[in-house]
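Any chance you'd type out a single protein's sequence alongside its tokenized fold?
>
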Amino acid sequence: MKEHIQALLEQTVSTLKQQGKLPAELAPRIQVDRTKDKAHGDLATNLALLLAKPAGQNPRALAQLLVDNLPASELVAKTELAGPGFINFFLDSNWLGGQVDAMVANDRANVPVVDQPKTIVVDYSAPNVAKEMHVGHLRSTIIGDALVRTLEFQGHKVIRANHIGDWGTQFGMLIAHLEELEKANPEVANSGLSDLEQFYRESKQKYDADPVFAERARNYVVKLQGGDTYCLAMWQKLVNITLQHNQAVYDRLNVSLTPDNVMGESMYNPMLAGIVEDLLQQGLAIEDEGAIVVRLDEYKNKDGDPMGVIIRKKDGGYLYTTTDIACAKYRYEQLGADRVLYFIDSRQHQHLMQAWSIVRKAGYVPESVSLEHHAFGMMLGKDGRPFKTRSGGTVRLVDLLDEAQERAAALLAKKDTGLSEAEKSEIVRRVAMGAVKYADLSKSRTTDYIFDWDNMLSFEGNTAPYLQYAYTRIQSIFRKSGIVTDANLQGQVIIQAPAEEALAQKLVQFNDTIKSVADKGLPHLMCLYLYELSGAFMSFYEACPINKEGVSPEERSSRLRLCAATAKVLQQGLSLLGIDTMERM
């Protein structure tokens, strides 16, 4: 919708240039926005105000010139000038009705596939091996997954990259401890090590307290990094156990990651030595007291000198920066990425920027390939501090999800639904998981947010239960109407009442919203849209009777089609967020 108006304005500017009525060198960035006040139309642009000075014309006169030369469009009913030179566009109600009909008839709610699909790598979740996922992993996991789903829906080739922490000096002590446990119980690894946190703590305690154990652990680190068969086999056991734990959480959260998407730190080890040598040969890296360092003029230390970024320590070990350089190089050269999105918390921003600066200088990834850090804030408790257990420990993600289901079950037990126990159980799961995810996704990822059980499970306000309930309410309307599927719907959408027009207006914004989420990496824009859509539907439902006496067959058919389009968009929009709907609730 906005793109269509922008295209009309671009065509108009081009025509006026050809006619000599605008300077040929003008290259405006045309912006069309929705108006806040319906009296001022549906869309507006300040293009005339932006062009007036470089064109040497009066803004309002230029606005009139643009309007007079706009090509005819079935989308636009009329245009009006406002203020010093704003142009307001009023959408045609017949066009709106036709768009809603097209949404009902199309499985994708009439959202087109992109003309030029890209290969997009999305780096998200990234838990550590031999540790259980905690609440700190939630934001990366579900925000990244929402973007993956949205980009795939647009038609892009999306490669999920779960950059797990599966390498480092800690694996010496983990292998040594697993070795001891297997001596007592050879099947301990196969049984899954049900408490990974306890396993990690025990390993660390032994390493700190037992010099013999610590020496063996250090030897195992050297052997592991040297490719020792035994150490690699033990390491692989730890990776497999962790992936099983993680996959159970992903499946429960309806996150689309699988073991096939794992691209851990260890994957890039064979590349590191070659990268360091290449950076030395290019003159980008130098030796400094035995270490290999890249000095970046863009970053200064406290003395104002170029910051040195170490890519190989003097003991021969590599750092996270080296791995991230290799990672970006691999994603461009081997995966063919046109765009790479990293969902990593904001504290890692400078680290990533330094790695990417080196990547660009070395020519490993061209400027045409977008490397994007989509940073996010922290989950906070009601006290405004990082979300912790009552004892001050880290909250395991599985414990958070358990509590969400317990609270959702208690809440839904108060409702008399007439459903079977199996149906109730599934509804509890969908409400609980949806509530946890939506509470996070509905907040801008760039800020911290307060985690609040009462708000997130409320059936009022901008919450998942509210949107899920709005969907089930539409399904109940269809059941009362005897409509089984969209194929049973008759007639066409005829927009007459203001509430019908407001709902149709909101429905046709779905594609614009998807595009904004995909371009900006901001799932909260979809949440806000769905919340506003639900509000527009509730206003429509109150103002425009559907199954009551006195409603003409044409009105009833039209309004049922508006219901069908709303249900389709709610279901699809929530699905892009990884949240399930249900027919009854």
